[in-house]
Amino acid sequence: MDVRAQISMVFHLDKCIGCHTCSIACKNIWTDRKGAEYMWWNNVETKPGTGYPTKWEDQEIYKGGWEKKPGGNARLKGAGKLRGLLNIFHNPHLPVIDDYYEPFTYKYLDLIESPAGDDQPTARPVSLITGKPMDIKMGPNWDDDLSGTPDYARQDPNLKDLSPAEQEAMFQLERMAFFYLPRICNHCLNPACVASCPSGAIYKRGEDGVVLINQKVCRAWRMCVTACPYKKSYFNWGTGKSEKCILCYPRLEAGYAPACMHSCVGRIRYLGVMLYDADSISEVVNNIEKDVDLVNQQLGMLLDPFSESVIKAAKENGISDSTLKAAQDSPVYKFVKEWGLALPLHPEFRTLPMLFYVPPLLPVMASLSAADHGEQAKKMDPAAKFWNDGWLYNTSTEELWGTIDQARFPLKYLASMFSAGDEEKIKAILKKLMAVRIYRRWKTVGDVNEEKAAAVLKDAGLTADTAEGIYYLTSLAKFDDRFVIPPAHREQAIEMLEFAGDTKGSVGFGFKEKPERGW
After folding, report:
1. Where are the domains positioned within the chain?
2. If you ran DSSP here, which 8-state letter would residue 235 be given?
3. Which phi and psi angles does 379 have, rounded to 5°?
4. Nearest-angstrom CA–CA distance, 480 and 460
């Protein structure tokens, strides 16, 4: 067991309000310069929608991630040694500027310096690339809130498995629903960008798993742009180098949360350490044939930081006590492993992403009023004024869970994004989230009786203590509860660099070599 530490994240989608404050914070710090105008290391998309760049989820277009053929090992879909050599001077799978958008500004001085005339002066848009006037055709959040629905929202690649009737129902005005999807680099355990780089410029830090690009080594082959299925590696046309999210590692080393997380208005973001077994990466990526099985296998790689055997193996691998303590206090561990509420985005790409999402419940709850109560309506007390006219108070848990299948957001759509098509996994999470809400209604509003609240928790596989823990971390958590950042050990990083100079002991990843491996 090769235990390693990884900085990981959870985004709670029920709490995101789509304000883009995170995107602006990142833009102001990291990409507000020449050549990076179009880069959004952090962006927020409306789902359903095509995202940024357009249709980034459709790997038939961009050829990102890994593909697994029966009986063989996983290989890069659009990059790699042979493909990279063939496409090194012409890569047909690279997104072009129109897939992103041509960055622009306005000639604001025209509003001030224009000569007097009969017409009100206007500020014309000009390209930040050419400096010439242009017509704005697209932006990084062009399809926000389902704007341009026929051209954008209806082109969402995740709709492909839904029948025409199901797709049409999602866009009926009375049933319309959407949610926001914030995205940053996933800092994957099996990053396709690292594997695709001909220069070896991209690497994964040994101490925390952050994926970085060495700007001195990068030769702008741009294979990383193709290989990343999430399209979070960008080409800087000004410097001729590739760039990507660095998870604000200078802030992490100083004990501060990344800028996008620190500025998050909805407090949807959580950051912490996860321990994983690096020996399992090859087995999961290469030996799991069915995409639908990847989620469970990836979650199985994540280790219990309280286990004595895990702690012992971690210490043998150079992981410090302070990092182990951070892993034990990690909110990410609670959401992902302890409570089973968060899932990776598109696990079928086989990059083993370490950014997890709590699927949105809100559209499910909105469907309660549309449920067919049938005989339950006859059992209600006319004098009681409970939520939904007393239906929740009187209905059975079995009937309550049935409303999840009647959600305005089809389970099939959410499963396409977060579980490689496993609808039961999504349903189980929504049941837990709904159970916590019903339990809290009994505690705070009183329109649910205690027996019903207890039955709902039991059916969802939760206890009262677990429900309280989920409620606290979701709704009441303080800053230090949401961001558990391990102390940076710079002396160890320096030691790793010195150790790398020793050809007998270097493994090039920052961990001490195990003699039996023969690295």
Report:
1. 361-481
2. E
3. -90, -5
4. 29
Helix (H) or strand (E) holding 273: strand 269-277
* Strand residues in 314-363 grouped as ranges (E): 343-344, 355-358
pLDDT over threshold 70, residue 504:
no
**Residue range 144-188, pLDDT digits in tens:** 998 877 788 889 999 998 988 888 888 887 778 899 999 999 999
Instruction: Assign 269 a pLDDT band (cuts: 50, 70, 90).
Output: very high
Residues 6+ apart with CB under 8 A from 135: 125
Rounded CA separation 460/427 (Å)? 10
| Sequence-distant (≥ 6) Cβ neighbours of residue 179 within 8 angstroms | 13, 14, 16, 46, 47, 360, 362, 363, 409
Angle at 29 between CA 24 and CA 30, to 5 degrees: 100
In the numeric block, which tokens belong to residue 363?
Answer: 């559209």
- In whole angstroms, give the CA distance from residue 148 to residue 384: 44
Helix axes 308-316, 321-328, angle to 10 degrees: 140
As a whole number of angstroms, the distance between CA 519 and CA 517 comes to 6
Tokens at 16, concatenated: 């995101």
Instruction: List, in sequence order, every residue forming a beta bridge with 67; answer none if it has no partner.
Output: 75
DSSP notation for 298-316 = HHHHB--TT-HHHHHHHHH
Residue in 289, 270, 253, 322 with CA at minimum distance from that of residue 470: 270
- List the beta strands (DSSP E) in 136-239: 179-183, 202-204, 211-213, 233-236
Stretch 111-116: mean pLDDT, rounded? 88
Of the candidates 232, 218, 152, 225, the residue with the CA atom closest to the CA atom of residue 188: 232
For helices 464-471 and 423-444, angle between their N-to-C axes, nearest 10 degrees: 90
Total-model pTM:
0.89
For 445, left (φ over 0), alpha (ψ -120 to 50), or beta?
A: alpha
Q: How far apart are CA 291 and CA 337, in angstroms?
A: 20
Q: How far apart are CA 26 and CA 39, in angstroms?
A: 10
Residues 6+ positions from 164 with CB-CB distance below 8 Å: none
Beta bridge partners of 242: 235
Rounded CA-CA distance 433/439 in Å is 10
C-beta of residue 154 within 8 angstroms of C-beta of residue 171: yes
Which residues are CB-contacts of 495 (< 8 A; sequence separation ≥ 6)?
Answer: none
